[in-house]
Amino acid sequence: METATAIFLATLAAGTPLVFAALGELVAEKSGVLNLGVEGMMIAGAVLAFLVAAETGVLWLGVLAAVLAGAAMAALFAVVTLSFQANQVAAGLALTIFGIGASAYLGLDYTGVALKGIGPVDIPVLGELPVIGPLLFALDPLVYLSFVMFAAVVWFLYRTKAGLVLRGIGESPASAHAIGYPVIGIRYLAVLFGGAMAGLGGAYLALAYTPLWVEAMTAGRGWIALALVVFGTWRPGRVMLGAYLFGGITIVQFHVQAIGIDLPPQVLSMLPYLATIVVLVLISRHAGMIRINAPASLGMSYHPAA
Amino acid sequence: MIRLEPRPRASKAMRYLSPVIAAALTGVCGVIFSALAGLDPLDTFYAFFIAPIDDRYGLGELGVKAAPLMLIATGLAIGFRSNVWNIGAEGQLTLGAVSGGGLVLLFYDSGSAWLLPGAVVAGAIGGMLWAAIPAILRTRFNTNEILVSLMLNYVALLLLSYLVHGPWRDPEGFNFPESRLFPDSAMLPVILADTRLHLGFLFAVAAVAIGWVFVRRSFIGYQMRVAGLAGGAAEYAGFNRARMIWIGLLAGGAAAGVAGICEAAGPIGQLLPSISPGYGYAAIIVAFVGRLHPIGILLASLLMSLLYLGGEAAQMELGLPSAVTGIFQGVLLFLLLAVDLFVNYRVRFKTTVVEEALS
Amino acid sequence: MKKPGFLLSAVTGALLSMAGIAATGAAEPLKVGFVYVSPISDAGWTFQHETGRRQMAAALGDRVVTKFVEQVPEGGEAERVIRQFAADGYGLVFTTSFGYMNPTIKVAKRFPDTKFEHATGYKRDKNVGTYNVRFYEGRYLAGIVAGSMSKSNTAGYVAAFPIPEVLMGINAFTLGMQSVNPKATTKVIWTNSWYDPGREREAADVLVTQGADVLTHHTDSTAVVQRAEDRGIYAVGYHSDMSKYGPRAHLTAVTHHWGDFYTRLTQEVIEGKWTSRDVWGGIAAGMVSLAPINPAVPKEIVALVKDKEEAIRNGTFHPFQGPVRDQQGGMRIAGGTTISDEDLLKMEWYVEGVQGKLPR
Questions:
Q1: Is the pTM of this model over 0.90?
Q2: Helices marked H in chain A — which ranges?
Q3: How far does the CA of residue A36 sit from the closest CA of chain C (Å)?
Q4: What per-residue confidence (pLDDT) applies to C23?
Q5: CATH fold group of domain B40-319
Q6: Which CATH superfamily is domain C135-255+287-345 in?
Q7: C221 touches chain A (CB under 8 A)
Q8: Shortest CA gap A110–chain C (Å)
Q9: Tens digit of pLDDT for each residue in A283-297?
Q10: What's the ipTM?
Q11: Range of the domain at A157
């Protein structure tokens, strides 16, 4: 029981940065924009979160800075792809390379700086309840924020008119434009939201998960977030589940290692990636699932006058 | 109000000018950057672009680094042209080194003249097999090739790590994670005396030539170009999409695989836990900076190689941190993408009223 | 501890050394190059070497000019950087990562007038020496501290790759624990990366869940110590004193120091006394030591650690002193003997008390 609780909590924590980044990317993709620069936006969020928190001593200012940094990176991408019509795949890759380089440069003086990170909340009575206390009422605030963001994204996409418009633009920008919606403007907002969320994911890593700054500390999690969006067939619930599944596999493979199983650690480390591929295949076999949920115009440039 | 207006036809002049403009603008960014960092822009320029190649050895190194980029980018471009997004070249390169290197280790003592050609072929096959996974998943199950090829990068690296930590470890190597040094018969010959420039560079140049012929002169190359420009038209014309996916991915895989074995049998001379310093990713940039055109890729790979060498020289000469190289690469690619706009559009200054009326 | 503005220090450093050339005039300063595998800000391995370089540069003043290149990938890339130093007239080049071994040997053949020193390797040449630190001595002492503080008799070890150097550390740590706590065992998790704070934290969490109440690591970030602080258990740091990351949890740290060695070697080259050899320095050479021990550790344990440290220093005690059995119960080091350096360098087995199977 104790082990199960521990695995659950570790999984929740490991999945949280992925939840932020993947939900953000989901919204951007729903509007028809494929931004492969999640890793770059995430690392920019991480470095600024740490830098600002270390300078001001206020952790929440760090979180805010990460949101802005992620959004600023996304804005760069948006200008190039939405206004300048550049290829989205190439621009996303450029964003990642730029983000990793720029964050390394900005963070030069901050490696080796110690920071008391964001810890779990302390809810007096509820947190002491047996079993559910530690499971539900003693998490850190950013984990709760990820739940809130999840609810907000679901509500926005499926319960608001604006969400409907956004999805409509992802399906057919030309028709949305014909009805009179500002396609480019809304895509800008969707991409900025995606950047802000990736920034939050970075902030979670640098301030809560491992409160420190080292170069390239996101270690590929941005790419995983991208995979999770397809993995979850562009459905927020499945994307979130996928994030925890991926986090969980990592935790479980470490458990298996520590128990002492006769498999090379490299093979165990492959498991999360192989599992992702298998699930991707299982999902995409049902062409219908992809067709219903995947935005039809994903990755294509759109220019109203064209 | 600034407004973009599509050109009646893509501007040929801009198509060739835009990489130059982007490179020039990157240079301007570099000047601003070095001024901000308190360095003399001229010194920075010299350290980055002249110092690394001011002697014969430096020129050789330019080729050593450009070769894998050129090779991989040429292969990838074939797929990119028809919207087949293989971003798994890093993994395919690793598998090329694994299969080619595996052959060398297997026939270590043979001393056969066929060992090296065999290893290169095995490398190509290894890269192709690794690329065949996303191809088959894409064509059979419609699985997104971007994500599958990317996930396989991690798997390939772990596989190589397992092999050199375990079964392929040098028996005399104090249990360190390295294979035996390749025998001389399995090493690529150096083609420029007193440098490390090896036969792999000629492979890369040959690949550029083959790529050019394929794109310009073959029917399937033409089909793939059309599919990339106008997917709907290609479908209408009945072009076989699955075949394009296969060709696109296998071309990238084969090129990356050859690049991988050429690294192992060239500058490295053995198998290590990591064969490539990110060539598979950098080649994607090279492909785009080169406008997916073989000649463009040739030039872009030399430029990218120079940026790497310049980054090292700038560290030695100016004490600039290595992160600066990444920033420059990102900026260059961004600017290029942005400037590309003017290939297909021109800028007009108009009032908002007219704009409304037009749309 | 914040490092001074990087660019600024590099530039002023270059200016100062140029001023040095002008001042001494006749005696050319020796140019010394350093090749690093990761960024100097990595807080781990490379940072310690960079600290050593600065110490050496400060100690020798205008007799040397030093430069470094960071983040040089092992394998094909390294050869160019090493060669560049040699071609630029550097008299001494330190290559500080295992994967630089073959490139260093290759370049050295072409530049017989330049001296090379390669860290952690085993290949030498007329102008190539090797050097390393006997980390296991520090690990053993840290094991004594950990073993005395563990209530669950289980330590968790987060490690990167199963190479001899790491295995030496795991085994010495376990033997150290068992010397004060015969029931002590060690659980190991391999992260397959020197450098991924997220994975290190995850591994640390898993080890805690499986009963470890003291953690240590052979990876490059501070994540394990930080996690131990959060989880209310103990940790032993590595590379440098990590107490600021976990003031309560940090029992001590196994730290390595290169400054004196770099100064000594460089001086030898300047004076023309350098010869190619293998330096494997431990506590006696001041190349490895323990960070200040946490006040929570009982006095008698601190005293015991001091005794053992002294015994290792004067050669009366060796951490791998028989009898030592391996995991399968086979006698590896017979009673009354100590392990040879060669067997240490090739180590490929776990001592009794390490749990799990060594990956092969």
A1: no
A2: 2-30, 38-56, 59-78, 88-106, 132-136, 141-159, 161-171, 173-179, 183-203, 221-231, 236-259, 265-285, 287-293
A3: 22
A4: 44
A5: ABC transporter involved in vitamin B12 uptake, BtuC (1.10.3470)
A6: Response regulator (3.40.50.2300)
A7: yes
A8: 7
A9: 777 766 666 677 878
A10: 0.87
A11: 2-293
